[in-house]
């Protein structure tokens, strides 16, 4: 995946998330000073904001390596046992979508996180024996879009719980310019700003849009990516001036036209748009809430007057 080469490798190259960086700088330096591993870290927030990247950076800064996995890949107890048994001292395990761990996997993690110990049962029924194996010290980095879905015993075992925020425009401009340089795609400052504005506060989207605009400029022989080039390309790709794509517009349009703007329940929106309700909640809603196009009320979701105006319903 080309994303790999674009990720910043060190904390100093990571743009944005100032609060998170300040907390981690101290945690890293303190752990290194004591010759220990860092406390387990839970990162939460919308997708695409840099949770995996931050975990890889932590490993580099600690001089260790990072094993990347996700809860759906840890379905059977033996999956997590295999990873824990192969750890070297100081390693980081990154578990994405950690709110989706199976119960047995989660229970194996409790003693592993707390005492660096693996408790396994050998055999079945009356003759079953339990064994407790020591593990090398490690740091678990968990990532989730829904911190509220974690069980409290699991959440309580993280010494650091940090939220990733949407990025500011100036931060996204720097990210677009940095990526453009790595891709050797010349972009003017206003071209970078146009892409950044339409990126929904999300570096992953900024980098994706930059690649699509680069393709467009190359095929149409338009030379460097200026603002008009970015506008024309992003119109072709269905990304509007607020960064909304057809899925966002479909969702808001359905709410306004079929449900009179709401309040309407999440499941009704999912049924009417053919989108999965969890995807709506984790992927589409956070940014629409952030820009004030959507409100959540006890009786359901409401499309705001700003959303109506943006979509031309006024
Ligand atoms: N690329 C993607 N996210 C980034 C970030 N936060 N800083 C620098 N480059 C990035």
UniProtKB/TrEMBL annotation:
Q: Which residues form the AAA+ ATPase domain?
A: 37-168
Q: Per the record, which residues fall in region Small ATPAse domain (RuvB-S)?
A: 168-238
- The name this protein carries in UniProt is Holliday junction branch migration complex subunit RuvB
Extent of Basic and acidic residues compositional bias? 1-7
Q: Name one Pfam family in it.
A: WHD_RuvB
UniProt function note: The RuvA-RuvB-RuvC complex processes Holliday junction (HJ) DNA during genetic recombination and DNA repair, while the RuvA-RuvB complex plays an important role in the rescue of blocked DNA replication forks via replication fork reversal (RFR). RuvA specifically binds to HJ cruciform DNA, conferring on it an open structure. The RuvB hexamer acts as an ATP-dependent pump, pulling dsDNA into and through the RuvAB complex. RuvB forms 2 homohexamers on either side of HJ DNA bound by 1 or 2 RuvA tetramers; 4 subunits per hexamer contact DNA at a time.
Gene Ontology molecular-function annotations? DNA helicase activity; hydrolase activity
User: Does the entry feature the keyword DNA-binding, yes or no?
Assistant: yes
Q: Which SMART domains match?
A: AAA
Using the UniProt annotation, give all residue ranges assigned to the region (Head domain (RuvB-H)).
241-314
Q: Which InterPro entries match?
A: AAA+_ATPase (IPR003593), AAA_lid_4 (IPR041445), DNA_helicase_Holl-junc_RuvB (IPR004605), P-loop_NTPase (IPR027417), RuvB-like_N (IPR008824), RuvB_wg_C (IPR008823), WH-like_DNA-bd_sf (IPR036388), WH_DNA-bd_sf (IPR036390)
Q: Which organism is it from?
A: Funiculus sociatus GB2-A5
Predominant location category: cytoplasm
* Family to which the UniProt record says this protein belongs: Belongs to the RuvB family.
Q: Which keywords does this Swiss-Prot/TrEMBL entry list?
A: ATP-binding, Cytoplasm, DNA damage, DNA recombination, DNA repair, DNA-binding, Helicase, Hydrolase, Nucleotide-binding
Q: Which reaction does this chain catalyze?
A: ATP + H2O = ADP + phosphate + H(+)
Give the subcellular location: Cytoplasm
